[in-house]
Amino acid sequence: LLSLQMEDGHSLFDYSVGLNDIVQLLVRQSPAVPPAASKEKDSELSDSDSGCGSGPSESDKSSHNGEGTLELEGQPGTAAQPDWTDPGFGLYKINDLVDARDTDMGAWFEAQVVNVTRKKPSSESAESCTDPDQPTAVPEEDVIYHVKYDDYPENGVVQMSSGNVRARARTILKWHQLEVGQVVMVNYNPDEPKERGFWYDAEILQKRETKLTRELNAKILLGETGDSLNDCTIILVDEIYKIEEPGTASPISAGTPKRQSGPVCKACKDNPNKTCRVCACHICGGKQDPDKQLMCDECDMAFHIYCLNPPLSRIPDEDWYCPECRNDASEVVLAGEKLKESKKKQKMASANSSSRRDWGKGMACVGRTKECTIVPSNHYGPIPGIPVGTMWKFRVQVSESGVHRPHVAGIHGRSNDGAYSLVLAGGYEDDI
């Protein structure tokens, strides 16, 4: 369904309403004229009351300052973190190498603990604590770990609960060490099962070995909610890691080998030396200057600000759309405006012709949208359903009714066939 507000001076064909289209017309109500008293009242308003002042009011300043403060407090990693060596609680310490689970997709990623805090105590627990000098044990579920992903530094510092943080997996299990029912960490790609993906927890369901291949079927576990992917075939059977015990994280000085995950970009396979117009600049394909890349809010493609035409001097604060997604403001017709002449119609000869002939808005050479099947094309005599004396505005409507089948100007017959009808069809002076 398409709603259009029609203006005077245009026909239905200017609004792309085709022949035999079913339309619904609504009479537009004339706008109510405001009383004179309201106009006088509006004229008495000052610039500050009407919002035309040069500067914001004090209440606006305070509200904007408060919003900015809340945004800064909500952003992880913006505030200066205290230099703690041992917080005294929690299974993992600062600078420990851990695995952090992404709560959206359920996969585990390599990360590092940068800070350890605890949840704010409730009012009841605060009142029950009588001696502040007496040390109290902090339960693990109240501990919050501030982690930073190794491969995704652009995400900043992320706060994780204890259930989504564990010691980094570093022990590869051999084939003979795998057993049915064992929960291990495997590499799996839900979208492309035959390609390398991310690391998930999995429960081994079936283990088969032949002379040539080794097959492993497992159930992929997708987090604490209990979601899972059943009967998944694990391709990389030589890269299965053991889940470490809680509290056995590696220190930062340990040379722990990094796990290999699937590429984020399928076009360039995350090759930093290869230009790519999918994950990098959509114009030049270069991966340099990521801080000067601008993302389109419609297609999510990246563009260097100096590759644009014209180039930009800085990243804009408002929404930005690339040239392919941006709508031309000159082509947008607002409510109450006249239709804009298209470039195609301006180049037509009829637009600059001095002739006064009515071209019929294209109805003189339009094709049939329906065909009469009641009578044959060479039928003579009355047609069922068409009363005598019926009039049509356009010649093509006569052809669709089956009266004058060829919708051209001539009504004469042929050498072996008579006239098709006794209808004067046309609007040109040379048709008679």
From TrEMBL:
GO terms for cellular component: nucleus. It is found in: Nucleus. Its EC number is 2.3.2.27. It is an enzyme of class 2 (transferase). Residues 281-326 form the RING-type domain. GO terms for biological process: negative regulation of gene expression via chromosomal CpG island methylation; protein ubiquitination. Residues 48-57 have a biased composition (Low complexity). The tudor-like regions specifically recognize and bind histone H3 unmethylated at 'Arg-2' (H3R2me0), while the PHD-type zinc finger specifically recognizes and binds histone H3 trimethylated at 'Lys-9' (H3K9me3). The YDG domain mediates the interaction with histone H3. This is E3 ubiquitin-protein ligase UHRF. The gene is Uhrf1.
